[in-house]
Amino acid sequence: MAAPVTASAPPAARLLLVEDNPGDVRLVREALALCPGPCELTVARDGDQALALLRGPGPRPHLVLLDLQLPRRHGLEVLAALRADPTLAGLPVVVFTSSEAGDDRRRALGLGADAYHPKPAEFDRYLEAVQALWDRWLAPR
């Protein structure tokens, strides 16, 4: 007699959030909790910590969500370092920042960011933005 077939849960999406603002970290956590699938969130509080995590052992994230205004190493420097490293260059990186400056957008996309999303100021729109990022980059296919 054949064993019954059971559906297994999809593996958790892995997200590295590079963000020094505790309020934004909390909002991203809340938004991910509303998403339909599991997500393993790792937070790096500055650019140096992000690069150390990405270059260290363990599984790579499926997406890097990168703020620009970071202590120790600016987000654009982190992005340039990721794109220059052959082992990390293919990681999807979405810049998620409070800067709506056109120059920041151009520089980030020019350095190889996969997308650039300004953080909405309103709570509901912030949650919607993170959920849209989930749908586009992390949802199981």
Polypeptide structure, described:
With 141 residues, the chain is of the alpha/beta class. The chain contains five helices and five strands. Helix 1 (22-33) crosses helix 5 and helix 2 packs parallel to helix 3. Helix 4 links the parallel strand 4 and strand 5.
Q: How far apart, in Å, are the first and last alpha carbons?
A: 32 Å
Mean pLDDT: 91
- Report strand %: 15-25%
Give the number of DSSP strands.
5
Strand order of the largest sheet: 2-1-3-4-5
In angstroms, what is the radius of gyration?
16 Å
| Contiguous helical run count | 5
SSE-based structural type: alpha/beta
Unreliable residue runs: none
Q: Helix content range of the residues, please?
A: 25-40%
What is the approximate shape? globular
Order of helices and strands: EHEHEHEHEH
- Sheet of most strands: 5 strands, parallel
In short:
With 141 residues, the chain is an alpha/beta fold. The chain contains 5 helices and 5 strands, in the order βαβαβαβαβα.
In terms of topology, how is this protein built?
Elements: E1 13-18, H1 22-33, E2 39-44, H2 47-55, E3 63-66, H3 75-84, E4 93-97, H4 102-110, E5 115-118, H5 123-138
Parallel strand pairs: 1-2, 1-3, 3-4, 4-5
Notable characteristics:
18% strand, 5-stranded parallel beta sheet, 5 strands, single chain, 141 residues
